[in-house]
Amino acid sequence: MEKLYFDLTEHEFSKGRKILLWIFCFSFFLAGVAIVYMYLIEHDLAIHVSYSIAPFSISLFAGFIAVLASIKKKNHYFVIDDEKIEYRYGLVKPVLRSYRWDNIKEVHLAHMSIKVRLLHYDGTVSVVNLTWLEKKKSSAIRKHIYHASREKNIPVLKFRSFN
Predict the structure, then answer these.
(1) Alpha helix locations (H) across the chain?
(2) Residue 29 needs a FRET pair 20 to 30 A away by CA distance; which of 50, 53, 72, 145 works?
(3) CA atoms within a 13 Å half-sphere pointing along the CA-CB vector of 46
(4) pLDDT, tens only, 67-106
């Protein structure tokens, strides 16, 4: 069986997109500050201070996305080889998951789902969630898991949905 390896750190935001996110964040923050300034200092009673809640919340949300885009993600990957299925991914705190082929009892695939359920010999169930990947990568991973489990004589059950 050939080894499947995807480097998941290759598709990050470009520098221009990061700059646009930060500009978007600061512009809404300044809009909120301007509303507070007009109400408290200029005493413009036509604009109430509660109108600043929307720009501040949009600024907070855009800032959160900008921080996540700006943080460098290291060592995110997905590997399927002869011995194991292993991946490392996470937005805030990356988690390493590894499943050995000799510990997998059954593989469950849903028809239109991007998840793969693995039943182990010790009775535990693991779900490989591929929703965070591009469609091309997730379908290639599902096909590779299917063919690898067939090659290792692991039963593959197909379902309409997981529920």
Answers:
(1) 15-40, 53-70, 135-151
(2) 72
(3) 0
(4) 887 876 677 788 988 899 998 877 667 788 999 999 999 9
In this structure, are strands 104-110 and 156-159 parallel, antiparallel, or unpaired?
A: parallel
Locus of tokens 């907070």: 60
| Tokens encoding 140 | 């290639």
Decide if 135 is inside a domain.
yes
Q: Model-level pTM?
A: 0.67
Residue 2 lies in a domain: no
* Model pLDDT, residue 11: 60
Domain count, the chain: 2
Range of the domain at 134: 75-159
Q: What is the pLDDT of residue 69?
A: 79
**pLDDT lower than 70: segments of the chain:** 1, 9-13, 72-73, 91-92, 163
The residue to which tokens 């991914």 are assigned:
89
Q: Which of 78, 88, 75 is nearest to 145 (CA)?
A: 78
Q: Are 23 and 66 spatial neighbours (Cβ–Cβ below 8 Å)? A: no
Look up residue 162 and give its two tokens. 């997981």
